[in-house]
């Protein structure tokens, strides 16, 4: 869940207990507890673990390939962001595990995960969105200005832009870490005091500000990806018509080979963007609904529905971060070659130990 809590932990538990029968949620507390285990622990945990392993392999491959190509620089940054997104989701899954939550630990895991998993994941998800938007825009620029793009977008500039995206998003989430502190909180339902979340005086205001910026970044990135993807699809259609006409005339092999390479990159970027759009469309719609209907929130009348729906959307975000390795492997012969060498090297190292 990427939404601000806007309450201290004790207020949350008190609110749930005071409202009692006044709640009109579609999903009961018992049902939600069961579904939490299914979606947050089993499904999300499995996807996140496998996806994390895949992105570690991606990073190893891109490091071996080097950063002389702008596409490699961008995809390396995307893999780092996806890894951060999946690792935080893995920690979130652990926090939702009942055996962990009620194991006698000295903190309330559902509150702690909000600060240590939920917000960090949201931050990495926004970074993923920005990088995907940049990659899509870069490919559009390549189709529009094929002769000038290499002087406009260089590997060094790409690395600077990637670092700037990370720093920008980390500065936004730092507002949350400043506004929320860890401290002793009395939990009414559990009749005990544990380490939980405590807001400073203007904490909710700062958190809401960070949340508003996050929504703006997400929507802006999503729109850029959607527009650029449509442009790239049109480019592929034009390229196919050109190739069909070119078969009737003599075309130098070097030109045909270069065009084919460019086409493969465009297809790969379009596929990445398409999966991003499919996985993030529900989240973007959900964020807009949250702004329009205050009761649809983690402390509103439909809190159980809200939490369940976010569990489904977080799984979609996890899928988006986990599947890129299959795209790279199937669409890039260079990646496939280096990947096979890296996997053999890792296997040989493991056997020697």
From TrEMBL:
Localization per record: Membrane
Transmembrane segment boundaries: 37-63, 158-180, 215-233, 265-289, 309-331
GTP-binding is among the record's keywords: no
G-protein coupled receptors family 1 profile domain: residues covered: 54-328
SUPFAM superfamilies recorded: Family A G protein-coupled receptor-like
Keywords: Membrane, Transmembrane, Transmembrane helix
Main location: membrane
InterPro entries hit by this protein: GPCR-Ligand_Int (IPR052954), GPCR_Rhodpsn (IPR000276), GPCR_Rhodpsn_7TM (IPR017452)
MF (Gene Ontology): G protein-coupled receptor activity
Signal peptide residue numbers: none
Domain of life: Eukaryota
GO cellular component: membrane
Protein name (database record): G-protein coupled receptors family 1 profile domain-containing protein
Annotated organism of origin: Candidula unifasciata
């Amino acid at each position: 869940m990427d939404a601000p809590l806007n309450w201290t932990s004790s207020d949350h538990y008190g609110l749930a207990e005071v409202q009692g029968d006044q709640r009109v949620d579609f999903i009961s507390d018992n049902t939600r507890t069961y579904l939490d285990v299914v979606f947050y622990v089993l499904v999300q945990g499995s996807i996140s673990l496998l996806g994390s392993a895949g992105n570690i392999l991606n990073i190893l491959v891109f490091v071996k390939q080097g950063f002389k190509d702008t596409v490699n620089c961008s995809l390396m940054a995307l893999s780092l962001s996806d890894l951060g997104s999946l690792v935080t989701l893995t920690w979130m899954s652990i926090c939702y595990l009942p055996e962990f939550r009620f194991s006698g630990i000295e903190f309330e895991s559902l509150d702690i995960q909000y600060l240590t998993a939920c917000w960090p994941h949201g931050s990495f998800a926004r970074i993923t969105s920005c990088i995907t938007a940049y990659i899509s825009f870069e490919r559009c620029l390549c189709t529009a200005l094929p002769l000038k793009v290499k002087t406009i977008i260089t590997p060094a500039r790409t690395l600077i832009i990637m670092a700037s995206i990370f720093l920008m998003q980390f500065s936004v989430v730092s507002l949350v870490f400043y506004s929320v502190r860890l401290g002793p909180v009395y939990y009414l339902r559990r009749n005990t005091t544990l380490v939980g979340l405590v807001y400073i005086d203007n904490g909710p205001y700062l958190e809401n500000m960070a949340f508003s910026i996050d929504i703006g970044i997400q929507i802006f990135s999503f729109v850029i990806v959607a527009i650029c993807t449509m442009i790239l699809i049109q480019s592929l259609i034009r390229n196919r018509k050109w190739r069909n006409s070119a078969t009737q005339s003599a075309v130098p092999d070097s030109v045909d080979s270069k065009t084919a390479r460019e086409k493969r990159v465009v297809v790969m970027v379009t596929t990445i963007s398409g999966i991003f759009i499919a996985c993030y469309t529900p989240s973007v719609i959900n964020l807009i609904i949250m702004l329009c209907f205050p009761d649809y929130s983690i402390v509103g009348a439909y809190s159980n529905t809200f939490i369940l729906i976010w569990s489904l959307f977080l799984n979609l975000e996890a899928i988006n971060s986990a599947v890129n390795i299959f795209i790279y492997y199937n669409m890039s012969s260079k990646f496939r070659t280096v990947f096979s060498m890296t996997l053999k090297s890792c296997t040989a190292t493991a056997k020697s130990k």
